[in-house]
Amino acid sequence: MQSVGTISALRAQIKAWRDHKQTIAFVPTMGNLHQGHLSLVRKASELADRVVVSIFVNPLQFDDKVDLSAYPRTVKADIQMLSTVDCDVIFTPTLDVMYPKGMAPHTNVIVPNMDDKLCGLKRPGHFDGVATVVIKLLNIAQADIALFGEKDYQQLLLIKRLVHDLNLPVDVLGAPTFREESGLAMSSRNQYLTEQQQVQAAGLYQTLLSVKQRIEMGGQNFPALQLEAFTKLQGLGFEAEYVDIRRADDLAQAISGDKNLRILAAGRLGKARLIDNIACNLA
Fold first, then answer.
1. Do 222 and 98 fall within a single domain?
2. Tens digit of pLDDT for each residue in 43-95?
3. Residues tagged active-site
4. Are 156 and 119 in contact (CB under 8 A)?
């Protein structure tokens, strides 16, 4: 496993692999890795001959400067974790490498119909920053496959749309959410939680499961189910942001009769903003 920090060094390695007809999988991250990230790397190694993992904290996708400054930078520990799985190259660019002329004058990429719902509505500009850095990273890595976790489901759909619309030659694959024993979705922000809040946080997943069960039992009054779940989260100590039942393929508001659903929720607990979602397929 090697670590490179420049675009030219990564592309030189990519070219060498291409010359030997090897396939490449790419896992972009912001570091502070956990077992969920490693599960993506393991999946990547099953699907391709070579695996590239990037570690870059992208300022463009933070709508809160305090959140950006507090985000843990743990590159040494991340490299140690990646040494336990089949990772061939770690790409660790600096801000100057990614945005050599600064971020203000940089070209931005915008995927329409994402900033008016769910996390896009709650975090203005966030998905523009995600789209911009992802298009850069995909162009730099030139991989055959890119893997993203389903925990950030709206982000996953945004990236699939981005790749489709711009005809990028990469297959974007989602991987199931990796969870703690309590059901809490693994996240770098979980470390902001106190021990008591860790217990409370598990209620987010349990609330989603409850909504899914109600729907599978015939519940079709989606607004009422959403309100009930929202109220439940508030009662668990969350500063709830949303609980929404959406169509899984495009995140349009679900209506009675829709079969392929995604139930999504977000809320703040102490210093942490937590998101989660589960599938609900009635077909």
1. no
2. 999 999 999 999 999 999 998 888 899 898 999 999 999 999 999 999 999 99
3. 37
4. no
Q: How confident is the model at residue 38 (pLDDT cuts 50, 70, 90)?
A: very high
The answer to whether 140 and 11 have CB atoms below 8 angstroms apart is: yes
| Predicted local confidence at residue 92, as pLDDT | 98
Q: Burial of 107 by CB count in 10 Å (0-12 exposed, 13-18 middle, 19+ buried)?
A: exposed
- What secondary structure letter does DSSP report for 133? H
Q: What CATH number is associated with residue 25?
A: 3.40.50.620
Contact 155, 177 (CB under 8 A): no
Q: Can you give the CATH number for the domain in which 241 is found?
A: 3.30.1300.10
Which helix or strand (DSSP H or E) is residue 9 part of?
helix 7-19
CA distance 120 to 19: 41
- What residue numbers bound the domain in which 103 lies? 2-175
Residue burial 219-239, b: 16+ Cβ < 10 Å; e: rest: beebeebbebbbebbeebbbe
> Which SS3 state, helix, strand or coil, does residue 262 take?
strand
pLDDT digits (tens, 9 = 90+) for 148-161: 999 999 999 999 99
